[in-house]
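Side project, low priority. Logging it here so it doesn't get lost.
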Amino acid sequence: MINRRTALTGLAGALALPAIRTASAQAAWPTARPIRMIVPFPPGGSTDVLSRVIGERLSAALGQTVVIENRPGSAGNVGVNAIARADADGYTIGVSTIGPLSAHVELYRSLPFNPRTDFTYLADIYEIPNIFVVNPQNPVKTVQEFIAWAKEKGAGKVSYGTPGIGTTAHLSTEFFSRKVGIELLHVPYRTGAVAVQDLIAGRIDMMFDNLPTIIGQIQGKTIKPIAVSTARRWPDLPDLPTMIESGIAGFDVTSWSGMLAPKGIPDAIAQRLTAELVKIGEDPAFVKRFQDMGAISTMKGPDVLKARVESEIPRWAEVVRAAGAKVD
């Protein structure tokens, strides 16, 4: 038989349950659950590999697991849109590359997000040089020799691979081909790694690709580097000339990425994430690891990322128009 004291004790416990659940649900960030980091490209590419290194460091700094979620599609637009549409609770962040944050504004007739207004900018995180590479059996050794060789082959007879329409590899090559007056055949792939394999096999002739994707093949001499896309030579490839040094005036292309969160996450969470990312970027061991992988750690705050976006949108709009590229 249940007596009055037992009944009152049970009732008090039942009434306390909602309060306990509420306290648990409002546990201090980020203790409630793992943080999801959306990477808008498949596993194995430059963005994925570098993001995983950042995720490891961020997990240690926050005391919470950071889970990488690959959401590829539409040259990064699918994953970046997923960041924009996620709950603004601090448990979803993600990486965007140069394409969705700048070049795609002009390239795509319609984007499902606005890079200027739909995100909380957390940090500018890294820069990557693109390398002009050819099949090692190709006789050319310089950019000018390649131009002469391609003109001799004829319009559309020389092919190039990319990780997809709208990537810097695609736009860089289109910009290059228009600038020097040659017509190349574009072969888009699902990932840069697959394109590299076809380059090694001789199924395509050349490509611009992110250094982290191809650094092993360059070191192993299974592909031949011709030039670097940045204005300055890459420290670990000091003998490789820039495109500008190779006679292509004004050719300075750097692939860059930023860390984002959905618009409207709490200021305290955004500031904590930014502070931890900046701190990670100040660690010499982290900087060295990125350089060994073919990237430059930038890891500055949201103002730097915002300034980069604002300067790059008009710059890439000009490149897109010059290349005559447009995607529905």
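Brief comment: The domain at 35-128+254-323 is CATH 3.40.190.150 (D-Maltodextrin-Binding Protein; domain 2).
Revisit when time allows.
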